[in-house]
Amino acid sequence: MISQVFILSSKGDHLIYKDFRGGAGNDIVSIFYEKVTALTGDQPPVVMNHKDIYFVHIRQGGLYWVATTTAGSSPFTITEFLNRLAALVKDYCGSLSEKSVQMNFALIYELLDEIVDYGYIQTTSSDVLKNFIQTEAVTSRPFSLFDLSNVGLFGAETQQSKVAPSSAATRPIQSSREQGGKSEIFVDVIERMTVVIGSNGLLMKADVEGEIRVKCYMPSCSEMRIGLNEEFSIGKSQLRGYGAAVRVDECSFHQAVRLDEFDSHRILRLCPSQGEQTVMQYQLSDDLPSALPFRLFPTIERDNGGRLLMYMKLRCDLPPKSAAINVCATIPVPKGSVSLSQELSSPDQSAELKPQSRAVVWKIARFAGGTQLSALFKLEVPSLSSASMLEVGPVGLSFELPKITATGLQIRFLRLSPIQPGPSQRWVRYVTHSDSYTIRI
Amino acid sequence: MPYLGGEETVRELRRALSNPNVQSDPLRYRNTILKVIRTMSQGVDVSGLFSEMVKACATVDVVQKKLVYVFLCSYATLNPELSLLVINTLRKDCQDPNPMVRSLALRNMTNLRLPSLVEYVEQPLTAGLRDRAACVRRVAVLGWAKLHNLHPSSEIDAAVVNELYSLLRDPDPVVMVNCLRALEEILKEEGGIAINKPITHHLLNRLKECDIWGQSEVLRVLQRYRPQSEDELFDILSLLDSFLVSPHPPVMAATLSLFLSISSNLPVISLAALERVSGPLLAACGSGSREMRFAAVCHIQLLLRSVPGLLGPHYKRFFCGYAEPAYIKERKMQVLVELVNDENVAMILDELKGYCTDVNTDTAQAAISAIGRIGRSYSDRCLQILTGLLGLKQDHITSAVVQTMRDLVWVCPQCSDTVCLALDGCEETLQDIQGRQALLWLLGVYGERISTAPYTLEVLIDRVRSEASLGIKMELLTATMRLFLCRPAETQDMLGRLLHYCIEEETDMCVRDQALLYYRLLHCGIEKTREVLQGRRSDPSLGVLIGRPAKPVSQWARCFNTLEPLSQGAVEAESDSRGSPEHVTYNSKPNADLSDTLSCSHIEEVHSGSDSAMRCSDSSTNVLASSIAAPLSLSLSPAVSPEDFEHLWLQRQALHTERGAEKIEEGIKVILNQQPKDDDALRQFLTILITVLNTLSSEKD
């Protein structure tokens, strides 16, 4: 049971406040904000209580999404609800930010009204909700030259228009109805990698959590068939000889997915509802089919002048045609490091010393597969001792690998039946993110 | 946050709302209303616009209607009279051919929360229960619950209750679940809806039709059901098996709760369910949402109490990601400690070692204390890491290491040699009170083995005038006394100086009294002093980490899938699971709230069965003042923190010891006055009290 739901900006501004059960004081929001900002750090902030009111909150899009409830409620339900609420708001408003929430507050009140009644969750299915939600989303799209670049010369079809712009999937789901917008469907295969590489270069842990996410802008939904790799197998026992078997340890599907063709042909059948939904989730531990995307070869020493020299060689082991983007390596450095001088091997990299997080942050915008970058960092540490070397590392790497899946999962085909009248577009995208990619030194 | 110029805004909005030109233009009208709602959600009081908004309610524009209702429901309680005007429009809307308008009107009619309107609402609600459209029935069913809570005393018509029961068979699953919810609220006095066999089986059969929210609700209500036969029980369990491994954590958790409650007499079944659920729980631990991860890790901790080896092979799943927030890291480390075994100890320690230099000091300290806890079973490896960390010479790390070492030698006295060697030189890096207290304790207890101990103490004694912390001064007194007993020649002079300062110049009563106590104790002779001060140095009974007996599931089943595991502190879990060294419980986490809540009224009597404490006073000095033969009443001033309390107690007890008296009573009677009643604080307090008594008894043994 949920007593109130409110959304706060990171600065504590009230964006949305809805009281379902009544009887709560008006100051409840400020009590929450005081508590959340006064945290000392070792308290678990997901659940906090004030007398017998319990606050459960999540953070998404830089906002606090808070529900107040009683002690006996299920944390899983409330957290899942808040996540779902945030996802719905994102679906309806196009994106999730303080600005979009502020502009669409009427829509969000309307959503909340339909989703929760008297503190009880009624429905969060966008199929049901679309019949009730009347308010149109307000979007602000900042003027950008990139939008112009997609317009071909004299209206001619350019090469660029065959690739969906990255912002294509961040629009409200309902605009397709009123504005006769394009009917599109996006199928994203998103994987998150968690890797720990030991100081001897051995792989200590590798986990991949993946999901297939469908984002549907079709006004009328029809049946969709998603074909996965035929050699896709689940569990450890099902090894099918040689070849490029794609294997995952565990796999679960959305309720609406019908699996009658899955065993024989690896086909998922479903009727997608509008908006975003996770169709399939899977995970794989320890046994990655492809090489790890990154290797680091560090050399760390002290020079005579009391400086710390860190020579980092980072190799990207992706296939040569692909590349990693937004690579960012965080290298913890000894406390008291004062200044950094750097020698980087190419101009598109940057590095800076962040004293408050005690780390050197080395950023590489684009890192092509099969190449190697090196950097030399010289750190001025006044109180350098031999023990300070222990403080260097482990290096955390964050990156994005577009068009690559770590498990090798591919979508063979994507069919809609019956064939949609009018133009419809289907997009399949792959991306692998780093959840936590740690290299010990 | 009140906006500046709120009044001005309200005045402007009123002008716009009553402007006939605006009213005639639907779009402008709607936009003005939109502005009102926006100002409202920013926290400005716009209740003054109530009458204007009531007028705006009568419109065909559904969006505008919805907006106005948002406003009306927020302010209706402030304007009960004006709200009467709305009811007519609402009742008219309840006849609307459009089911959406009907449900909207019905919902908002019940959301106005005005007891005076109840008579107008009942008729449309009754009609709503029989409406053709499911969405109206959903609203109507919950409407009755709202109505009941407006007038909790008044009886709801039995016919309505019957109708609600029959609506459990409604074709729409949400209506069914709402009926459950409404009946639970209406029949709260009688213990909620009657869960009998036909209802249970009906609900179970329709479980698949519900969405995940409905499923978790139904499963929660069914926890009250007790199957009549074993066959029925197994039928239910096998029906629910697919829900147990649901990819949706809410359903999975609700199913497990139900499993645990209906098979509470069959431990084998419960354990099998725990095995089965570990897969989905692990998956939730890797969920994209941090908050979900946290909830899952906290619940895994519960599971581990009963099946310690449950997730042993999956220990790597609890390695912390570098971007995870500290509160998740801390919990994951607690889980890692539980999962340690001979095969993985090297890997886990290696991983934990990496966290010790984390930029977040809380994480670093949690990692160090986790290593210390593993050290109870694998002391050599852990001490090696801990000693290495001292080399970093960083205050927060050194402090955590020293505290961890103190805790470790309390459990494993065989570590003391290594610890004594490692302590050399770390007094220079230590800054915080807790770290220095731990060091002082170690210096006092193991003074004869640490060659530099007198010099370290001497420096501190020379600086005692500028010392601000009470705890340090008292710990310093005790440490110096203890050191004096084993190394009198080196310590005598500084002890004299310290006692002199504390008795003559110190302004704090606690310190002064303690010094006086020691002074008089010394007068009683060195043997007496030794008896009092050189108590137990360790508590081997606390045992090692591995091979701990599993606790029965019933111990935590009640709080599974509630907020309790997420909000309870880590300390409680620790002392609960294996009893940490006594001093930790009250030294490292002084609970400031505790003394606040323990002030007056609400009398709670507790007979602490501390016959051990009595036995000791019996054997050693044979005394207890007659003044405490009568019930001892302790009043805590808010400024007293638990560790101070310990000293107060020590001092009191000891003073009596000294004065000498005749009578002894069986057990100590403690009367606590507490306001408001807070069982948790009381329990915590009692733990501390008992610990103190045990320490006392051990010191005198």
UniProtKB/TrEMBL annotation, chain A:
- Give yes or no: UniProt keyword Transport: yes
Read off the Pfam families from this record.
Adap_comp_sub, Clat_adaptor_s
Matching CDD domains: AP-4_Mu4_Cterm (cd09253), AP4_Mu_N (cd14838)
Which PROSITE patterns does the entry link to? MHD
A GO cellular component annotation here is: clathrin adaptor complex
Q: Name one GO biological process term.
A: intracellular protein transport
Membrane topology for this entry?
Peripheral membrane protein
List, alphabetically, the SUPFAM superfamilies matched. Answer: Second domain of Mu2 adaptin subunit (ap50) of ap2 adaptor (SSF49447), SNARE-like (SSF64356)
Give the UniProt keywords, A-Z: Coated pit, Endosome, Golgi apparatus, Membrane, Protein transport, Transport
The answer to whether keyword Transmembrane helix applies is no
Q: Which residues form the MHD domain?
A: 182-440
Entries under InterPro entries matching the protein: Adaptor_comp_med_subunit, AP2_Mu_C_sf, AP_mu_sigma_su, Clathrin_mu, Longin-like_dom_sf, MHD
The organism's place on the tree of life at top rank: Eukaryota
Q: Where in the cell is it found?
A: Early endosome; Golgi apparatus, trans-Golgi network membrane; Membrane, Coated pit
Chain's role = Component of the adaptor protein complex 4 (AP-4). Adaptor protein complexes are vesicle coat components involved both in vesicle formation and cargo selection. They control the vesicular transport of proteins in different trafficking pathways. AP-4 forms a non clathrin-associated coat on vesicles departing the trans-Golgi network (TGN) and may be involved in the targeting of proteins from the trans-Golgi network (TGN) to the endosomal-lysosomal system.
* Record family assignment: Belongs to the adaptor complexes medium subunit family.
Which protein are we looking at? AP-4 complex subunit mu-1
**The species this protein was found in:** Astatotilapia calliptera (Eastern happy)
From TrEMBL, chain B:
Identify the InterPro entries for this entry. Answer: AP_beta, ARM-like, ARM-type_fold, Clathrin/coatomer_adapt-like_N, TBP_dom_sf
Q: What is its main location?
A: membrane
Per its UniProt record, what SUPFAM superfamilies does this chain match? Answer: ARM repeat
The Clathrin/coatomer adaptor adaptin-like N-terminal domain covers 12-522
Query: An example Gene Ontology cellular component term from the record?
Result: membrane coat
What residue spans carry the region label Disordered? 570-591
Listed A to Z, the keywords are: Membrane, Protein transport, Transport
Entry-linked PANTHER family:
ADAPTOR COMPLEX SUBUNIT BETA FAMILY MEMBER
Tell me its family.
Belongs to the adaptor complexes large subunit family.
Name of the protein: Clathrin/coatomer adaptor adaptin-like N-terminal domain-containing protein
Q: Which organism is it from?
A: Astatotilapia calliptera (Eastern happy)
